[in-house]
Structure formats: structure tokens, C-alpha cells
Design brief:
Length: about 500
């Protein structure tokens, strides 16, 4: 019996609620950006007739936010898998052992004439071979990701959940991609439909290290198996979907985009109009700087603004909420190198509610994107939080990043700039401080279309189609993939919302 059928008790017809098994490393109380997408789906789908069982991890060393637990529906069963990160520990032992051996050899060489030593060249070759082997083993243990040792215990917990609860559909979300390997094995064993959700690209991720040679082939093979066996593939930006279809045409008939969204209830009680002194202007950046997303162009831009500002310009403070370091160096130390230390406040990682309060109390916020390969694929979840709180946005994004179109459709008060061009960022900062925004008369008119509820309706449309044998209007999200591919790539998915609004 599919979930679209119903059960009869004493002549009364009662629709059966859907059951879905969600495999997600990031889930409350773990405080990662990915936790909010999954939590939002779990909460919204619960109101639409779908009950979730979530397989996730015991927090362990992860940063947590206990307040997020209050947002999990009471009907949701959460299975937290205890596990030890053996991979990271083994890798650390390899590094320590290698370092000790090299130090010991170096000390030994200092006590003798290495030039006259006939074994010196052989020792160097052995060292080089050992280091290559160590690097290979270290990288191999990181495929598909650094949480690969979670796969075993999470799979066993998932098997028990399937046997006890008989879910109608499996859903997995990455990163970490290890969640998809768990879901793939489950789907094949129990012959259940499976939706693989990609919050970031796998092989095309600009922030992920490139695997060389044989390791790259194996990582690519795993991605291909996941894409081949998944019943449906979800990307969280349209550019990611286009890139994936171009790179892996096999998903062209079973792939769609579901953006991140705004969780209305989380923001409704917050003020969006801070009352501040006229001689102060506060800018907030939420999130982490890492990889090609660097703080340097933003710090240099602020230095230029402070250097060029007139005497009557307000005092500018840049508040940084998130990981307090970049590439192992504290953000305050980097700011000091640019001579702007007194204008920087580093808060570190905060509870979500506290971070939202800081954003709501800001005159403007920063969306710091990246430039280069893959910069057009990702849109940070914080963009939707900024939209919900209606704070003016200084957006560093390449022109083909979906964030640009989202800002236009929302009617946001925003200033765009190149994410790696300090002078362009400085110009955007000055415009924001002066209150010079485009289309200011229509500000924020389109924010509601980005609600998490609308995104959840898109996901239920997929779930309903994969778990019923009866063709009806709700299958349009699938059927539109049979259209000409060129039309599909340029097509807006308004049908998903309209066809799923009946659920």
C-alpha cells in the first residue's frame, strides 16, 4: 500500500501519514550550517503529513546549541549514533610517528658527516617513499570524507530503524557524503526509494581538496554510484544542478533544485529596525572564513573606508560571528596587520539565537562569497537569515552566483561587489553607509517566496511521487524532466509549488 492510499476503520477512511528516514550528520544539537536545512524540513514536513526518523551522530567534540532541540517536533524519532573518529586519530598517529622519525634522523645526521655517508642517498629515498605512502594512506582514509568511520555504526542503526518503523522513503543529505553511502546501501537492501540531497557539490566543491590519481578515481567512482542509484537527486542551487547535469548526464531525468529557505517562526519575534546612535554604524558578518573565502579583501576594504572617510562619518565597527580564526591565525591578529583592530569585534561561535539577535541589531550585514572555480555554485544559508531579518546586505558574489538573483527577487536592500576586490568592496561599503540602494522603493517585497514551507512542499512533491503508483497532478516535478534538456535548465520550478500546494 502506498502512502497515497488510506486505511479504513469502522467505515471511516483515514489517510496514512508518510514516514521518511533521514540520514544527516549535521542535526541539532550539532551547530553546523547544514543542521538548519534538515531541521527545517523535518519540522515543516511534520505539518504536511510526513513523520521523520533521523539518524545522526552523538555530538562528541562538535559544537552544540541545545536551544535547537526545542524546534524538533515531538513525533520525530532521533537516533544518535555513538562513534569514535578512528580515521582522524590514525591519521594523527601517522603524522606524529613520521615527525618523530624525521627528527630522530635529523639529529643523527647532525652528529656525523652526511656527505661522506654512503647510505645518505638511500636514506633520503626511503624518507621520500615513506612520506608518499603516508600521504596516500592519509588521503585514502578521507574518502569520501573525514567522517567515513561513521558509516558502519550509522548503517547498523539505520537497518534497525527500517525494520522497526518501515519508512516509505529514505533521504540523505551532504556534506558529509558518507551519509549518501549509508543511504545507498539501505536503499538497495530494502528496495526503498531514496532522495540524495546535496547542500554542496561533491567532486565539484571548490572548498574540498583535490584527490590525485587512484584516490581521485575512487572518489569519483563513489559519487557516480550514488548518483546512479539514487531515485532522485536534489541540489540546493540551480547552478549546482546545471553543473551536475552537464558533468553527469545520467541524472538529467531525476534532478531538481530546492533552495534553502527562511524559517518564519524563528525570526518573527525579532526587531528588524535597530535604534542606534547616529554616529555609529555596525556591520556584521556571520559564518566562517576558510579556503578561498578570505577575510583579507574585507579587512583591506574597511581600511580604505576608514582612511578616506570624512570627519562627520559615523564610527564603523565590523562584528565577526563564527570561527575566530582563518588558516590557523586569529582574525583579530589579521585585522591588526591592516591597522583596523580597534574597529573589529570578534565574537567567535555563538548559539544561533544569540547570533540572530546580533544580526537584527546591525545596520548592515556581509555576505562574503568567493571567487574562482566553483564560486557560482553555492549560496550560504545565512543569506536567507539576512533576508528574514531584513538588514541591508553587502554581498560579495560573482555575477552568475544564484545569490544575485535571489537578492533581486526578494527586493532586498543590497549592494553587490566582487568578493576578491578590496576596492570594489570598499565602494560597496561606502554606498551602504550612505544608504544608496537600488530599487529602494520596493524593498523586501519578495522575501516571503523564500520561506522554508515552500521549499518543504517541493520536497513532499518528490516524496509523494516516489511512493505512489497512481499518476496525478503531483507528479509534475518528476515529469518535467522528460522535456527538452535546454528547456529544463532554463525553466523556473513554479510548478513544484503550485502542484504541491494541495498536500
Amino acid at each position: 500500500m502506498s502512502i497515497q492510499e488510506s486505511r479504513s476503520f469502522d467505515g471511516n477512511t483515514i489517510p496514512e501519514r508518510g514516514r521518511w528516514l533521514c540520514i544527516a550528520y549535521a542535526f541539532p544539537p550539532v551547530s553546523r550550517s547544514g543542521s538548519f536545512r534538515t531541521l527545517g524540513f523535518v519540522r515543516e514536513l511534520n505539518t504536511m503529513g510526513w513523520d521523520a526518523t533521523v539518524i545522526t551522530v552523538e555530538p562528541g567534540d562538535e559544537k552544540i546549541d541545545l536551544a535547537l532541540l526545542d524546534q524538533i517536533p515531538s513525533k520525530t524519532k532521533v537516533v544518535r549514533v555513538p562513534w569514535t573518529d578512528r580515521i582522524v586519530r590514525i591519521k594523527k598517529r601517522l603524522l606524529i610517528k613520521d615527525r618523530r622519525q624525521r627528527n630522530a634522523r635529523h639529529a643523527d645526521e647532525c652528529d656525523r658527516d652526511t656527505v661522506a655517508d654512503p647510505h645518505h642517498g638511500k636514506t633520503e629515498k626511503i624518507d621520500s617513499l615513506y612520506q608518499s605512502l603516508r600521504d596516500f594512506v592519509s588521503r585514502a582514509m578521507m574518502i569520501p570524507d573525514s567522517r567515513a568511520s561513521w558509516i558502519g555504526p550509522a548503517y547498523r542503526a539505520s537497518v534497525n530503524a527500517v525494520k522497526q518503523l518501515s519508512p516509505h522513503v529514505i533521504y540523505s543529505t551532504s556534506p558529509y557524503a558518507s551519509a549518501h553511502l549509508i543511504a545507498r546501501k539501505l536503499s538497495k537492501r530494502f528496495r526503498l526509494p531514496w532522495v540524495a540531497d546535496f547542500r554542496d557539490p561533491w567532486r565539484a566543491n571548490p572548498f574540498a581538496p583535490r584527490m590525485p590519481g587512484l584516490l581521485g578515481w575512487w572518489d569519483e567512482h563513489l559519487e557516480m554510484q550514488v548518483l546512479k542509484d539514487a531515485s532522485w537527486v536534489v541540489c540546493n542551487t540551480p547552478t549546482m544542478e546545471r553543473e551536475l547535469i552537464e558533468r553527469r548526464p545520467l541524472v538529467s531525468q531525476k534532478c531538481s533544485t530546492i533552495l534553502n529557505g527562511i524559517d518564519e517562526g524563528v525570526y518573527s519575534a525579532r526587531t528588524t529596525h535597530p535604534s542606534k546612535k547616529s554616529d555609529e554604524f555596525t556591520i556584521t558578518h556571520c559564518g566562517n572564513f576558510y579556503g578561498p573565502r578570505k577575510p583579507d579583501p574585507w579587512f583591506e576594504a574597511l581600511r580604505q573606508v576608514l582612511r578616506d572617510c570624512p570627519r562627520n562619518q559615523p564610527n564603523i565597527t565590523l562584528r565577526l560571528v563564527g570561527e575566530p580564526t582563518y588558516d590557523g591565525k586569529h582574525l583579530a591578529a589579521i585585522a591588526d596587520e591592516y591597522g583596523i583592530a580597534k574597529n573589529i569585534e570578534v565574537y567567535g561561535t555563538l548559539e544561533h539565537q544569540t547570533a540572530l539577535d546580533i544580526v537584527a541589531d546591525s545596520d548592515a550585514v556581509i555576505l562574503a562569497g568567493s571567487a574562482g572555480d566553483g564560486a557560482h555554485l553555492q549560496v550560504p544559508n545565512k543569506l536567507f537569515e539576512y533576508l528574514a531579518l531584513k538588514r541591508p546586505i553587502i554581498a560579495g558574489a560573482v555575477k552568475d552566483n544564484p545569490a544575485v538573483e535571489i537578492l533581486k527577487k526578494s527586493g532586498a536592500k543590497a549592494v553587490l561587489c566582487k568578493p576578491d576586490d578590496a576596492s570594489d568592496i570598499a565602494s560597496a561599503l561606502k554606498r551602504c553607509i550612505d544608504g544608496k540602494f537600488s530599487d529602494d522603493h520596493a524593498a523586501w517585497h519578495g522575501v516571503d517566496q523564500f520561506s522554508r514551507r515552500e521549499r518543504a512542499r517541493e520536497l513532499t512533491a518528490i516524496f509523494d511521487r516516489l511512493t505512489t503508483n497512481r499518476p496525478d497532478s503531483k507528479t509534475s516535478v518528476i515529469e518535467e524532466k522528460s522535456l527538452d534538456q535546454e528547456q529544463v535548465l532554463g525553466k523556473k520550478r513554479s510548478n513544484v509549488q503550485s502542484n504541491s500546494s494541495t498536500h
